[in-house]
Design goal:
Number of domains: 1
Number of strands: 10
Helix content: 25-40%
Largest sheet: 10 strands, mixed
Distance between the termini: 28 Å
CATH architecture: 3-Layer(aba) Sandwich
CATH class: Alpha Beta
Bound molecules: S-adenosylmethionine
Shape: globular
């Protein structure tokens, strides 16, 4: 399995900060969906600077924020503190989540889970299954093989994974790229509630991600 590597948030350009402080569109839908389902314990898996941690904590969820980046977790903690929000913040690797079996109701894992290779992906799906309660849900995004990154001449780790080369926070970080069949295979032990392939326009041409909502049976 390839080594995990945190984002270097110190390399984030000032003008890009706004993107990572504003909750993603679907997070509002998830707040609503999971409230209506009566879910309480929320994990922001790969919290980054904390934009979804803050949203869910404000909405009254028992919120857990987790990331491999000490800097990201520290910034999330400070932001929560400024707003007097209670959040359980932890640094660690998603390959071994520090949460008990069947302890979490809902997980948001946005642009995080694919920062590993194929073996790592298999390990993470086991971890998601372990920590989620029955009927617990996880919304996650995965880079698509249609995206610009997959077409770059970056070093390959395995048949689905490349190491990103850039002058920015993601330099040297493994990226797993998925297709529809791979997603069905990876999450075969879950109910797959939704799969959407969404195109974003970030200035680098076509940026495609799969957005996947899974439920533990
Ligand atoms: C693209 S950022 C997304 C942050 C956040 N989910 C958001 O939407 O704002 C990816 C985050 O995943 C974290 N990450 C990468 N590999 C990780 C791992 N193995 N375990 C935990 N977090 C990891 C990075 O440090 C980074 O903060």
């Amino acid at each position: 399995m390839v080594d995990s590597k945190a984002w270097n948030w110190k390399m984030l350009k000032k003008e890009d900060e706004k993107i990572w402080k504003e909750p993603a569109t679907e997070s509002y839908y998830l707040v609503n969906r999971w409230k209506m389902q009566g879910k309480k314990d929320f994990l922001d898996l790969g919290c980054g600077l904390g934009r979804h941690t803050i949203l869910f904590a404000k909405e009254g969820f028992n919120t857990y924020a987790f990331d491999l980046s000490e800097d990201g977790v520290e910034k999330t903690k400070q932001w929560a503190g400024q707003l007097n929000l209670k959040v359980d913040c932890k640094v660690g690797d998603m390959l071994e989540l520090p949460y008990k079996d069947d302890s979490i109701d809902c997980i948001l894992c946005r642009n995080v889970i694919s920062h590993t290779d194929t073996k790592g992906m298999e390990k993470i799906t086991q971890e998601l299954k372990r920590v989620l309660r029955k009927d617990g849900e996880c919304y996650l995004t995965l880079g698509s093989k249609n995206t610009w990154g997959w077409k770059q001449d970056w070093p390959m780790v395995d048949e689905n994974t490349k190491i990103r080369v850039e002058d920015g926070p993601e330099n040297g970080i493994p990226h797993f790229y998925a297709d529809y069949d791979l997603i069905l295979k990876l999450f075969k032990d879950f109910s797959i509630e939704q799969i959407h392939e969404i195109r974003g326009f970030y200035g680098k041409g076509g940026s495609y991600h799969y957005h996947v909502l899974i439920r533990k049976n």
